[in-house]
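Need Probable membrane transporter protein's 3D structure for a figure. Predict it.
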Amino acid sequence: MLTELFLIFIILFIGSFIQGVSGFGFGIIAMSFLPFIFTIKESTLLVVSLALITALSIVAQMYKHIQWKKIRILLVAALTGRLCGFFVLDRFGEMDFLKNLLGIFLIGVVIYLFTSKAPKDTKVTNETWLPVVLGFFGGLVGGVFAVGGPFFVFFMMLIFSKDKYAYSANLQATFVLTSLFTIGSHALNGDFTGNFLVYFFVGVVTVIIGSRIGIYCFTFVSQEDVKKIAAVFVAVAAVNLILFA
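Structure prediction for Probable membrane transporter protein:
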């Protein structure tokens, strides 16, 4: 178990360090490697629980910038997606084929990271179809793989392109509500084991240490270089998940 805890520490430390340096997704890094140790279900529950702690700490500082009316449709769609994700994870979360699907999705994320540009503000962002589509798939992918963030990020960048505080506050509020839904539904389903508390405690300590060191290195390290290096690691892990999981 000590070897397992050490590997978990290394994976979560790298993810939280990169998050601190560049704002790059902690969940994407963690979910690229944790499935080599755990099942998809166990990996997702651990990452979602740790992501909730991080999101809560940000929301506590920026809650005044939350604009519920602008994100309510997204939230309803996201929670619907999380409900669907719960049933998928509950039924198939122990099966290895989900690791293959995760690998394929991570390859898509890597392509997105290397090719994406900030979206331009547009009037369609206040219509119904865009928050419904992005919210549902962000909730579904987040509920199954804990990496639904890119869908929410894209929407928030459209809605709050001129207000970075509102962008961050509303994004983290979305993470808090969707994470609480996932954790609550799986808790009621009896999916958390005694060992989970040990992994969670190690994870909380690791995330605090890694993110603080990352923030300290923020001014000394190129964020773009870190993102590219992280993307390469994710791509390698994704290929391994597809071929060898």
